[in-house]
């Protein structure tokens, strides 16, 4: 029963920096009056638990990792790695840390017999070994050094194994060169399962965190910054690949759909009614507009008269019947203004749905539509939704008869736009299918 809206801040900052700055200033001013959110704390030793808890997305407030005074933290990765020649662990560590061969940084001593003399340990920052005896010697010879004892002398690959080391050594993942298309298919399949190259990221199941992760990995792969905004501007894997080809790219513009309110209502009301529907489709520019004609009589009881608008109506006619035939005064003025917007699609409720039914668009979504004057048979794909028991269900049925390519979905919530998950999914599927 809740409605919410979300936005990517990185996209806002790139496209509307002034508006974003104003928004942040307003939030900053409001902070003193807001309740303090709870803090969930984890000690550094339980960092893996903190990350797991954070990744579930169920927390409220802050997730805090505390570093106790006794927690050893190295200021930077060591600059050198010393150890047996051609040793696989030594070579892997040098590669991971981009370190040189030499003493004073990480000293690798696989077993006690590999320790030629104790001077090898002098000045070490980290002693890496698989021998308890070497670990004991290191504590005596270089007590300031961090001694890490591996269970087996082999390169460490699993996250659990790295966490056992306390997070002091970090493996840096590098994206290897190769075919970008093949790499992208592999990465997306790893993240979300098999993905069609012409399917939008949103339809493939990529949520906000997955898009951020993909943008970061792409940045490392192609050697330039890729943001979530780039993924929205090129919403399919194929379009994203095309953007890397170096060829001139067409200006990216999202499909524009107009949303038309009901009789003696306004754009804010229809925006609230359609909130869960439009949030299910981020690749459409939803344009909510007020009719240019102010209400000529009593408004919807929930709407202040000063903020009420109509697409047509009887002067001083009652709210309940002022829209009914033959009182179509004003439509000849309001309809041309909507047609000038040349939307790709249109969504309307009640009287707004009647106006939408008259527009030339690629698709139409009509909620509880009433019959407008001049409606003729049409082949445009249409989505019809209404309650068979609402007062004017007969008009909803009559409107549907004019459309040969239609989907009809019923509900039991009366003369309203229902927020049922199944209907929202049908709506999203319908619009997505006709966006191409």
TrEMBL record:
Superkingdom classification of source: Eukaryota
GO CC, alphabetical: cytoplasm; nucleus
One matching Pfam family: PP-binding
Gene3D superfamilies: ACP-like, alpha/beta hydrolase, Medium-chain alcohol dehydrogenases, catalytic domain
Entry keyword set: Hydrolase, Phosphopantetheine, Phosphoprotein
Residue runs in coiled coils: none
Name the record gives this protein: Carrier domain-containing protein
Taxonomic source organism: Alexandrium catenella
